[in-house]
Specification:
Elements (H helix, E strand, L loop, with lengths): L5 H8 L9 H10 L8 E8 L11 E5 L10 E4 L4 H7 L4 E3 L1 H9 L6 E4 L4 H4 L3 H4 L17 H10 L1 E5 L5 E8 L4 H17 L10 E8 L5 E2 L6
């Protein structure tokens, strides 16, 4: 059995396991915990009352968080022509075609986001088995298949995130860093929560959110009273 660290024991004692916390009190509690030796991310886990086996009930979307995520992401861009220089100018870490495809296949660089202009999708589509499971396959719904490479890159650098449910109907998403002011974390969370709420399938009746938790990279989870939002 894995031994629980003293830091985790301390943090666990601060949480009442069966208690539902307001988002503001949960954020304050996370900030009061013993920190790790690095700046931790804060993540939200949304357990949805959907059937992931039904394609019409799967949830996916993208949202520009008002205060970003604080995370430095690595972006690869598939494009051609004048968009090559635009991509380099506005923050792409690597721009290419076949050469970028080789890097992805060999996984010599781990990208957090892939953007593609439409004319490159014949090549990019072949990378689906690699990009799909990682959740970074370009998609027009996410703005990652676009003729406006400049806009896509600027939004990504400002904190635009993509989300989708996993096979268990759960959405995992980062919404900031522990060193963000509480009001910024609150506004980021509420923006994400409302965006997912608006994605509720029309045919789905009754409860949508079954459970919501937030946690830092190294902390235990705190259950949110989503009815108070």
């Amino acid at each position: 059995m894995k031994k629980i660290s003293k830091k985790m024991q301390f943090n666990l004692k601060k949480i009442k396991i069966k208690k539902l916390y307001t988002i503001n009190s949960a954020i304050k509690l996370l900030k009061d915990m013993k920190p790790a030796n690095f700046i931790e991310s804060i993540d939200a886990t949304f357990h949805l009352n959907i059937n992931p086996k039904k394609s019409e009930q799967n949830i996916r979307g993208s949202i520009l968080l008002p205060h970003g995520t604080g995370k430095k992401i690595k972006i690869g861009v598939f494009t051609t022509g004048k968009n090559i220089n635009i991509a380099k100018k506005y923050g792409a870490d690597f721009v290419g075609m076949e050469d970028l495809a080789i890097i992805i296949k060999k996984q010599t660089i781990k990208f957090d986001l892939i953007i593609a202009s439409p004319e490159t999708m014949n090549l990019v589509g072949k990378l689906g088995p690699i990009l799909g499971p990682r959740g970074i396959m370009p998609n027009p719904k996410f703005g990652t298949i676009s003729n406006d490479i400049k806009k896509s890159l600027k939004e990504a650098r400002k904190g635009k995130i993509n989300y989708r449910n996993d096979k268990n109907g759960i959405i995992h998403s980062n919404f900031g860093k522990i060193n963000f002011p509480k009001i910024q974390l609150y506004e980021n969370f509420l923006t994400l929560y409302n965006n997912i709420k608006q994605s509720k399938p029309n045919q789905l009746k009754g409860v949508y959110y079954k459970k919501i938790n937030i946690s830092t990279t190294m902390s235990p989870g705190i259950t949110i009273d989503h009815l108070s939002l």
